[in-house]
Design goal:
There is one protein chain. With about 290 residues, the chain is of the alpha/beta class. It has eleven helices and 13 strands. Helices cover about 35% and strands about 20% of the residues. The strands form three sheets. Strands 6-13-11-9-7-8 form a six-stranded mixed beta sheet. It has a five-stranded parallel beta sheet with strand order 3-2-1-4-5, sandwiched between helices.
Length: about 290
């Protein structure tokens, strides 16, 4: 068997003892994030298997795996997920992509294993549910990887990413960061829209795009969208994402600038997002 590739060569977000010879089970939700991750894992030369979620994982991604390298399960079938990890002889698992938030609370059809886990949770939210799932995965001896692994080049970086500088004063940026971090600390959301020291909107259960549209109803200039992470964020299953759809929503809402936390927010298809922001005259900044 060939020697494993050093983790630092592949990604800064892999454990130092990462063994590139062991299969990685990609637990894939919605959007383009799982496909980007699958492609990056393959480029790194590591074997990848797919655990797809019914009505969540894209059909194109599923079709990109042979039948022996994939399994399709419903959200809530934790027992089947754990069985798939065993069948794949996975050394690692990686969660990428979202599950519709409402499905976690209203559309969930748990199997016996998931029901047992849910009964132990005093607070039932995305963080506690995925945290419990992570615990079950690691009980098998399968290490759940940081969800930023393999896609280092897709993360926001510090400083101006589009535009020579952020078109708002530093004090207003600092205010936006303070508000975003505080609502993240309170587990309300991870982003906000501010204008010259005034909070126009904060993200809650409705999600980022709905918040941006709401902020856009004020029809004002000098607005800034700020996206951050929670203190002690568990990057194994909860990484904030910024993509073309969010950029387009910003533009439609009349918001001209966004500040994203560097190294912590994923910019999906980063080259395309930066090019489109440039074309539309929108500013993107990493803090």
């Amino acid at each position: 068997m060939p020697a494993p590739t050093t983790s630092a060569v592949i990604s800064a977000y892999l454990p130092p003892d990462f063994d590139s010879r062991l299969p990685i089970a990609l637990i894939a939700g919605r959007g383009g994030y799982p496909a980007l991750t699958a492609a990056a894992i393959r480029r790194a030369g590591a074997p990848v298997r797919l655990i797809a979620l019914e009505d969540e994982t894209s059909a194109d991604l599923i079709a990109g795996f042979s039948e022996s390298e994939r399994v399709l399960i419903n959200v809530g079938q934790l027992g089947r997920m754990l069985a798939a990890l065993k069948d794949f002889q996975a050394g690692y698992a990686l969660m990428a992509g979202q599950v519709k938030p409402r499905k976690l609370f209203h559309g969930l059809t748990p199997d016996l294993k998931a029901a047992q886990i849910l009964l132990t949770l005093k607070r039932r939210n995305a963080e506690t549910i995925f945290g419990a799932i992570a615990g079950e995965i690691e009980k098998l001896g399968v290490r759940l990887l940081d969800a930023r692994a393999f896609i280092d080049d897709q993360l926001a970086h510090a400083g101006p990413m589009v535009g020579k500088k952020l078109p708002v004063d530093r004090e207003y940026l600092d205010h936006g960061i303070q508000i975003a971090r505080e609502i993240a600390r309170l587990d309300i959301g991870q982003s906000c829209v501010v204008r010259k020291g005034t909070v126009l909107a904060v993200e809650a259960f409705e999600g980022t795009d709905a918040m941006l549209r709401r902020a856009g109803t004020f029809k004002t200039d000098g607005t800034l969208f700020v996206k951050t992470v929670k203190p002690g964020q568990d990057f194994r299953f909860d990484v904030p994402v910024f993509g073309l759809r969010t950029l387009e929503t910003m533009r439609e809402a009349g918001l001209g600038a966004a500040a994203l936390e560097a190294g912590k927010v994923i910019i999906l298809d980063k080259p395309a997002v930066l090019a489109q922001a440039q074309a539309w005259g929108l500013s993107l900044y990493g803090f």
